[in-house]
Amino acid sequence: MKYIRKNKTDYDILKAQIEGLIEIEDFYLPVVSNAGALIMENLEELNWAGFYFTEEFLGLDKKDINKNTNAIYSAHDHSNKERSPLDLILGPFNGKNACVKIALGNGVCGTAVKEDKVQVIKNVNEFPGHIACDSASNSEIVLPIHKDGKIIGVLDIDSPCLERFDEEDKAGLEEFVKVLESKVNWG
Questions:
Q1: Burial 50-66 (b: 16+ CB within 10 A, else e)
Q2: How many domains does the chain have?
Q3: Are 17 and 35 in contact (CB under 8 A)?
Q4: Residue 81 CB contacts under 8 Å (≥ 6 apart), including other chains
Q5: Residue ranges making up the domain that contains 68
Q6: What span, in angstroms and rounded, lies between the C-alpha atoms of 116 and 41?
Q7: Rounded CA separation 140/135 (Å)
Q8: Which residues of 83-97 are buried (b: 16+ CB within 10 A; e: fewer)?
Q9: Going by C-beta distance under 8 Å and a sequence separation of 6 or more, which residues neighbour residue 96?
Q10: Does residue 6 fall inside a structural domain?
Q11: Within a 10 A sphere around the Cβ of 151, how many other Cβ atoms?
């Protein structure tokens, strides 16, 4: 089903809401937990909204996280090769169960990190190497998140509708991410 916009998302309100929550508590964990909920409440036709963070940002020890590699990596990468410190670990989200770990360059999230570029995917079934955590997802937008100029994670949003995300969504969500980047205590 192709997306037909029913209501315009007010990204100024969404930005003000996250700024208000950050004023109450600026530590990243509660902020991103609420950020995903705000996105689910304010954008229509979504089935997943959440965050992945790099292993490096989370301070994870390679030896410990790699011992269960085959069990926790996305379905597209079960090798035991050395992992990049930018491989992604699932953070707070709203939606169905998701891939726990995504290798750099894999799927839309791993591509967003590798290219350090927002990914707006109109049809995920046409994206080479798409990782289908929820087979109902048909379009996706992923935005890199930076701290001190370095990627620390991504905001990932999925929709069951084709062509759900457009330039207006990209611009509004980029402003949302800029608030996170500049006002959150990333530890």
A1: bbbbbbebeebeeeebb
A2: 1
A3: no
A4: none
A5: 11-183
A6: 27
A7: 12
A8: bbebbbbbbbbbbee
A9: 47, 48, 133, 134
A10: no
A11: 20
Half-sphere exposure of 160 (CA within 13 A, CB side): 10
Question: Residue 148: inside a domain, yes or no?
Answer: yes
Q: Is there a domain that residue 165 lies in?
A: yes
Provide Rg for the chain, Cα atoms. Answer: 16
Give pLDDT tens digits along the chain (187 positions).
888 888 999 999 999 999 999 999 999 999 999 999 999 999 999 999 999 999 999 998 665 555 544 434 444 444 444 557 779 999 999 999 999 999 999 999 999 999 999 999 999 999 988 887 778 899 999 999 999 999 999 999 999 999 999 999 999 999 999 999 999 999 9
Residue 58 lies in a domain: yes
The dihedral built from the CA positions of residue 113, 55, 169 and 18, taken in this order, carries a sign that is: negative
Kindly report the CATH number assigned to the domain that includes residue 153.
3.30.450.40
